[in-house]
Amino acid sequence: MSGGVLIAGTTSDAGKSVLTAGICRWLARRGVKVAPFKGQNMSLNSFVTREGAEIGRAQAMQAQAARVEPTALMNPVLLKPGGDRSSQVVLLGKPVGELSARGFFGSVRPDEPARAVSGGRREALLEPVLACLAELRATHDVVVCEGAGSPAEINLRRTDIVNMGVARAAKLPVLVVGDIDRGGVFASFFGTTALLAPEDQALVAGYVVNKFRGDVELLKPGIEMLRGITGRHTYGVLPYADGLGIDEEDGLRVSLRGAVRESVVAPPAGEEVLRVAVCAVPLMSNFTDVDALAAEPGVVVRFVDRPEELADADLVVVPGTRGTVRALAWLRERGLADALLRRVAEGRPVLGICGGYQLLGERIEDEVESRAGTVEGLGVLPVRVRFAVEKTLARPSGSALGEPVEGYEIHHGVAEVLGGEPVFTDAGGRALDGCRAGAVWGTHWHGSLESDGYRRAFLTEVARAAGRRFVPAPGTSFGRLREEQLDRLGDLIEEHADTGALLRLIEQGAPPGLPFLPPGAP
């Protein structure tokens, strides 16, 4: 088969990423060569491909669902919010400048991608976005595209490079997914469609209901009425599913109280629970690093923003951030910095990752990210950090605690390690990255805790330093758990979508003659 489809949503978090990944896994299990695509992503959770390109973690997860290697083609434009209503623009995997609410300014370096957007207009990015999509379609049977936010954000339609702008240019059929758990899903489906221009409406083939609880028979009259009003088919009703655990897309939208990830599996009898507190710093990035900890039986992970919440933690993690200096000031303002210093003085474990590692050091020199100049760090690691204009993007591997480790690096800060012990070394024992001083660990490597042997060895060290009688379960495989989660997404499509109609839509495009809905009148 060949073709494509774009998954749009009535709102943010309606289920676009889940539906895209589910369709990718369902098609891959059928033997279809499928790839995910998102023209523009705004996220602080990113990933580095094997060729050294930075893309959104959601697209990397969807590539895994499709059983293909992630590439920069799958997410040509990544916007990384940095506060003050600006975002770093990552184009084709490399940073090229800053995007404000009104346009581009200040290219990081004068390379070819930067010249593509030198006109200062967001819509100038549509050409490279469509070129990437065309290349993916030329090398895959099917491309499943994900939109962003809602396609009915009419104030943004002129500059749209991710929703109907892509669908119309590439002649892709569109499915609109809505979260019924929020309520008002039928009104959202109708309103989303009615606000679109006639040319865009002609591509909206139908709808998918997400997060339905209860007896689907009770929903059928509404679905039939929706078809009578809009002339469009509902391609599936996906049930509410707990614990899917897919990578979050937007770190800025994480609730400090709601983003609690904890193991649902108790530790073996006679062993203690290990408690992990993650400081929810501003502009938190790649907080998915702690997912591997939460996957361990008996490890409880929670995000915190008050010093008293560190009191009973066996391990405190200071995660990555797009604003290292800002995060450091926030820790001090909230009293968390003092709580961390007390922990270190007591010999209790602390782990800093990327930006969290940098702020644990003695000094930060930053004329790039915050432009704050020289700032004193917390001083618990013998490390000095200087921010470079060039961003480090890498997929390193090495060993730690006698175990092999893989990770990925995304940072402007360059660490000068003045003492302590390296966290990761090569086969000859030479330092690769990081610094360890007593019970304090720091590293630039994201994703290292997904290496099962190293994670278990690290938790054993943490438990020993914390005085806990905790032994990690030897059979836990983070990679296997991730595959099981992706298979669950594929099962949702196979079991609850109209797969026959979906296959026809992907191959044949939107049905001709779909009615136009004038805004405000059914």
UniProtKB/TrEMBL annotation:
Superkingdom per UniProt: Bacteria
Which controlled-vocabulary keywords does the entry list?
Cobalamin biosynthesis, Glutamine amidotransferase
Transcription among the record's keywords?
Answer: no
The UniProt entry, under PROSITE patterns, shows: GATASE_COBBQ (PS51274), GATASE_TYPE_1 (PS51273)
**Domain CobB/CobQ-like glutamine amidotransferase, residue spans:** 275-452
Q: What does this protein do?
A: Catalyzes amidations at positions B, D, E, and G on adenosylcobyrinic A,C-diamide. NH(2) groups are provided by glutamine, and one molecule of ATP is hydrogenolyzed for each amidation.
The family annotation for this protein states: Belongs to the CobB/CobQ family. CobQ subfamily.
Know the name of this protein? Cobyric acid synthase
Protein's organism: Streptomyces odorifer
Q: What is the lineage of its organism?
A: Bacteria, Bacillati, Actinomycetota, Actinomycetes, Kitasatosporales
